[in-house]
């Protein structure tokens, strides 16, 4: 299992030390949430902050774009140091083209999927994607409650991946904690994003190590 702490829950006034802590920790990736105030009812940060994180990060940067018209910005995020770029299926008129665009930039292409979106909608693009980010909360905010329906979606997605021979990783994003991590991995999750559970704990490095060992 790969663990991707979400920088959204970190102390933005001390971003460099937060990134250095993640470098030293057992975290595998750093999850970077980009919110535009249009696709989701919140604004986080953008390309310059991603670039600043990349300057200090020694881990794979997993950029989650919760924005409309992502095709206008993916090149800048790739230049800013993103390794994986996920776009929302609900925000893309031409998802197939958007995924190719991301791969052509030398990044891994991910599809993020809102809780209300069915796995069947991924059938025609599963072979064009390197990762499916299943949202286990409605996107826009950290610290929300995990939606239990997610387990069923993980199993459905795993089945689709096995059936098609796709190599896509299954990522779970939202409300991940020590209580659900193992069950998610057992259901087929490859990557777990954890924001507030990691950064609200008294010792984030130890919390990261604990989740890595639980699952
Ligand atoms: C939600 C974001 C998540 C969020 C996860 O819109 O996409 O990545 O940061 O935070 P927690 O783990 O606190 O739910
Ligand atoms: Zn996210």
UniProtKB/TrEMBL annotation:
Transmembrane segments: none annotated. A divalent metal cation binds at residues 31, 33, 64, 173. Keywords: Carbohydrate metabolism, Cobalt, Isomerase, Manganese, Metal-binding, Zinc. Binds 1 divalent metal cation per subunit. One of its GO terms (cellular component) is cytoplasm. The keyword DNA-binding does not apply. GO terms for molecular function: D-ribulose-phosphate 3-epimerase activity; metal ion binding. Substrate binds at residues 6, 64, 140-143, 173-175, 195-196. Its EC number is 5.1.3.1. One of its GO terms (biological process) is pentose catabolic process. Pathway: Carbohydrate degradation. The keyword Isomerase applies. InterPro entries: Aldolase_TIM, Ribul_P_3_epim, Ribul_P_3_epim-like, RibuloseP-bd_barrel. The active site is at 33 (proton acceptor), 173 (proton donor). It catalyses: D-ribulose 5-phosphate = D-xylulose 5-phosphate. Its cofactor is Fe(2+); Mn(2+); a divalent metal cation; Zn(2+). CDD domains: RPE (cd00429). Belongs to the ribulose-phosphate 3-epimerase family. This is Ribulose-phosphate 3-epimerase. The gene is rpe.
């Amino acid at each position: 299992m790969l663990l991707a702490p979400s920088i959204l829950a970190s102390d933005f006034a001390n971003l460099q030390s937060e990134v250095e802590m993640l470098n030293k920790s057992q975290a595998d990736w750093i999850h970077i949430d980009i919110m535009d105030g249009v696709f989701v009812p919140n604004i986080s940060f953008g390309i310059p902050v991603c670039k600043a994180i990349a300057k200090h990060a020694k881990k794979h940067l997993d950029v989650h774009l919760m924005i409309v018209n992502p095709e206008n910005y993916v090149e800048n995020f790739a230049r800013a140091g993103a390794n994986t770029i996920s776009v929302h299926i609900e925000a893309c008129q031409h998802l197939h083209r958007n995924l190719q665009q991301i791969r052509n930039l030398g990044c891994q292409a991910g599809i993020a999927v809102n809780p209300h979106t069915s796995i069947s909608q991924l059938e025609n693009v599963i072979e064009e994607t390197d990762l499916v980010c299943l949202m286990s909360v409605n996107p826009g905010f950290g610290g929300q409650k995990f939606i239990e329906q997610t387990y069923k979606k993980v199993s459905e997605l795993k089945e689709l991946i096995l059936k098609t021979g796709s190599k896509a990783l299954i990522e779970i994003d939202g409300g991940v904690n020590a209580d659900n991590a193992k069950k998610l991995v057992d259901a087929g999750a490859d990557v777990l994003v954890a924001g507030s559970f990691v950064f609200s704990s008294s010792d984030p490095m130890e919390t990261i190590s604990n989740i890595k060992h639980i699952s």
